[in-house]
Write a structure and sequence with these properties.
Elements (H helix, E strand, L loop, with lengths): L16 E2 L4 E2 L39 H13 L3 H14 L5 H19 L2 H22 L9 H18 L20
Antiparallel strand pairs: 1-2
Helix pairs in contact: 1-2, 2-3, 3-4, 3-5, 4-5
Length: 188
């Protein structure tokens, strides 16, 4: 899922008002419904007027190197929700042959997000799904280290984190449990 948490409802008339009853909706510069509430570091909405973490701009086209570097920075800062948006941009703008790679990495970042938010069942499920997706992509593409990303180590990190989350039954510190996307120490 992208950073557009607020989608149009069945009663959305497209007029800028929900259910046609005069309830104003947040809109972006192109008139699309967007939730403008500030967000915390894990992407959770905060009350209007609260200080939040700047959101990732959507639709940014980056090189694979820029994508990996930006996502790693965000993961290290404990912002896996924001890292997933970077991966999502790569999956939407990159070559078709790499779509499933970036989608799998986005799933891993969302799995870490949910694990840090306390949604342990969903977090573990997404971590495993992302691990399988990246391993499948690597096998199909014959590329275990695309753009220097150690997919085997990342998949191991994800499965171990899923087991830890289920065994311990509590939320994790996203920054402390963030993976290393490159190198032998991919899973901290």
């Amino acid at each position: 899922m992208g950073s557009t948490e607020s989608k149009g409802s069945a009663g959305d008339t497209g007029s800028g008002f929900a259910d046609g009853a005069g309830d104003a909706r947040d809109r972006d510069s192109e008139g699309r419904a967007r939730n403008a509430r500030p967000r915390d570091g894990l992407g959770r909405p905060l009350p209007y007027g609260a200080d939040g973490v700047p959101r990732q701009p959507e639709g940014v086209v980056r090189t694979p190197e820029e994508t990996v570097s930006e996502a790693q920075r965000l993961l290290d800062e404990g912002k896996p929700f924001h890292a997933h948006e970077v991966f999502e941009d790569a999956w939407k703008s990159g070559p078709d042959a790499e779509r499933e790679l970036w989608r799998g990495l986005a799933q891993l970042a969302v799995g870490l997000t949910h694990s840090a938010r306390g949604n342990l069942t969903g977090g573990a499920r997404l971590l495993r799904r992302g691990a399988t997706a990246t391993e499948t992509w690597a096998a199909d593409a014959g590329q275990p280290l695309p753009h220097g990303i150690d997919l085997e180590a990342i998949a191991t990190w994800a499965r171990e984190l899923a087991q830890d989350v289920e065994r311990n039954g509590r939320a994790v510190d996203a920054g402390a449990r963030a993976p290393r996307l490159r190198g032998a120490d991919a899973g901290r």
